[in-house]
């Protein structure tokens, strides 16, 4: 049977297709399927395939093909917007996994020694983290679909996120996959694999016990307004009217803040002071400031901005945050002079939006300080960590995924807030126009109901506050730094090994010739 499979995989195209399918499997661990437990074995078929590659080059191609499948799977909901670009991006970024595929064969190929099997459990997760680090750059699309993010609903995993962020979760998930692959396929290294699993479990348990738990020291009442889908002519005006209507229903509920979703106001408030007055009236009615999101061309400077704007009973308070990390193709086109034609084949941005320059912590009264994030900025762990460092009591994500309403995107986006809350020890509110809106406590636990993609309404959440400093906020992305050290040590070891091989040189094929200084042995001696 195995011989038949090996023969079938001798075709490069068939093998690449199998690798792409294997690379796509982890998507089932993310919402909407949310099979979080599957993440711990989802990489095993991909690892076994790369391990069996006849050459290092073929293993690199297996890594590349698997990376292509992974990226297409976790971003498949972008297909209506990007069309052919989603495949082009997956081909280019999939190459990031080529070195990882080569490392799989280097440590697990053939009949690896127990030492190589044990090293694989450290090296391969480190290599995976480097892939996630590079593709997390905003210019390459950001950190959507980080493997550790699949664990957003697992309480022990959220505790670990407070120690090392989503990076630590990704490392541990890959380590378990590697150990599982070794147990299945490498008899000689099964003992180190079991030992690695035991060590991982012990380290996880120690982190669980040691990591400080957020201590609740207060509570606020925050209302999320989700208007639902509003299409057709003058959708911006009718959406505003719907948000206004829903906000009025919150009168008398002793609120500390009202939050509207991304692009909830489609006009610059400097050009439309009438809208600013209407929102100020809502603030007086509810007794709380209203955080709206303006997506419009600004009247006080050139360009289109997407901004969180705080409005109190007397009008705009002056607290404003301009979105810093824009969505490639959706809000700007990278290298527009070369790729501008994307607007003719998809829903790419016709005009680049402008970027903000710094993050902002806003004071909304009652001693409450909030840290706003817009759209896919909630996927970046460094942004929420910096807001916590700067004194934010509550993290706020304003989002709109109506373009992808019937896909897995709304639920995936809402799940990210759980990780940001757990990492920082700060509650997080994820408010959207059309769902999914959600609120999480300082430990990442879900508070109250999700407002799904079929919901239109306003809901008040009792949000506990905590002000301790998590290890992740204090020490930052230390798992990434550790992975860099592991790979640096690997490079030094491989270089020294290659140097020793060069110095030893090939064995001579003929007997060593005597020189004039050498004399033949005398008979009888």
Q: What does it look like?
A:
This protein has helices at residues 2-8, 12-24, 44-51, 56-74, 79-82, 84-94, 98-108, 114-135, 155-185, 190-210, 235-248, 273-286, 336-339, 381-389, 409-424, 471-475, 478-504; strands spanning 216-226, 257-260, 289-297, 304-312, 315-322, 362-363, 369-374, 394-399, 428-432, 437-440, 446-451, 457-466. It has 525 residues and is of the alpha/beta class. Helix 8 (114-135) crosses helix 17. The chain is globular. Mean pLDDT is 89; it is low at 515-525.
Which parts are unreliable, with pLDDT below 50 for 5 consecutive residues or more? 515-525
Largest sheet: 6 strands, mixed
- Coarse morphology: globular
Helix % is 40-55%
User: Can you write the helix and strand succession as a string?
Assistant: HHHHHHHHHHEHEHEEEHEEHEHEEEEHH
The first-to-last residue Cα distance is: 63 Å
* Radius of gyration over all CA atoms, rounded: 27 Å
Write out the strand line-up for the largest beta sheet, numbering strands in chain order: 5-4-3-2-1-12
Tally of helical runs: 17
* Coarse structural class: alpha/beta
């Amino acid at each position: 049977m195995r011989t038949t499979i090996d023969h079938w995989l001798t075709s490069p195209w068939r093998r690449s297709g199998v690798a792409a399918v294997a690379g796509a499997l982890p998507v089932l661990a993310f919402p909407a399927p949310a099979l979080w437990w599957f993440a711990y074995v989802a990489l095993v078929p991909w690892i076994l395939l790369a391990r069996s590659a006849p050459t290092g080059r073929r293993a690199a191609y297996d890594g590349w093909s698997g990376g292509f499948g992974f990226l297409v799977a976790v971003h498949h909901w972008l297909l209506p917007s990007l069309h052919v670009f989603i495949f082009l991006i997956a081909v280019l970024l999939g190459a990031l996994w080529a070195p990882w595929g080569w490392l799989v064969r280097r440590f697990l190929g053939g009949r690896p020694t127990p030492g190589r099997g044990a090293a694989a459990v450290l090296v391969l997760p480190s290599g995976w983290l480097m892939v996630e680090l590079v593709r997390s750059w905003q210019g390459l699309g950001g950190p959507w679909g980080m493997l550790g993010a699949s664990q957003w609903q697992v309480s022990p995993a959220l505790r670990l996120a407070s120690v090392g962020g989503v990076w630590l979760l990704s490392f541990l998930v890959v380590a378990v996959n590697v150990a599982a692959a070794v147990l299945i396929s490498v008899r000689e290294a099964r003992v180190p694999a079991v030992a690695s699993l035991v060590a991982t479990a012990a380290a996880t348990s120690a982190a669980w016990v040691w990591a400080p738990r957020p201590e609740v020291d207060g509570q606020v009442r925050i209302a999320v307004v989700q208007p639902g889908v509003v299409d057709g002519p003058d959708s911006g005006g009718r959406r505003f009217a719907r948000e206004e209507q829903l906000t009025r229903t919150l009168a008398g509920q002793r609120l500390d803040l009202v939050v509207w979703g991304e692009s909830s106001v489609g006009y610059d408030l400097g050009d439309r002071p009438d809208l600013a007055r209407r929102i100020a009236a809502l603030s007086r009615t509810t007794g709380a400031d209203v955080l709206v999101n303006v997506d419009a061309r600004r009247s006080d400077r050139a360009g289109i901005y997407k901004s969180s704007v705080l409005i109190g009973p007397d009008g705009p308070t002056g607290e404003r945050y301009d979105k810093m990390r824009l969505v490639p193709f959706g809000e700007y086109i990278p290298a527009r002079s070369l790729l501008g034609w994307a607007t003719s084949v998809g829903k790419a941005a016709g005009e680049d939006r402008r970027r903000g320059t710094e993050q902002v912590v806003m004071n909304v009264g009652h001693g409450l300080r909030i840290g706003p994030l817009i759209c896919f900025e909630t996927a970046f762990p460094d942004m929420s960590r910096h807001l916590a460092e700067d004194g934010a009591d509550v993290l706020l994500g304003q989002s709109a995924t109506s373009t992808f309403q019937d896909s897995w995107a709304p639920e995936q986006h809402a799940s990210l807030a759980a990780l940001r809350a757990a990492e920082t020890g700060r509650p997080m509110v994820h408010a959207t126009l059309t769902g999914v809106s959600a609120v999480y406590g300082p430990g990442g636990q879900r508070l109250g109901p999700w407002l799904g993609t079929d919901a239109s309404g306003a809901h008040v959440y009792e949000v506990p506050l905590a002000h301790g400093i998590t290890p992740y906020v204090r020490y930052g992305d230390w798992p990434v730094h550790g992975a860099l050290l592991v790979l640096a040590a690997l490079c030094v070891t491989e270089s020294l090994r290659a140097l020793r091989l060069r110095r030893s040189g090939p064995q001579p094929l003929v007997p060593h010739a005597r020189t004039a200084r050498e004399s033949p042995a005398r008979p009888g001696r």
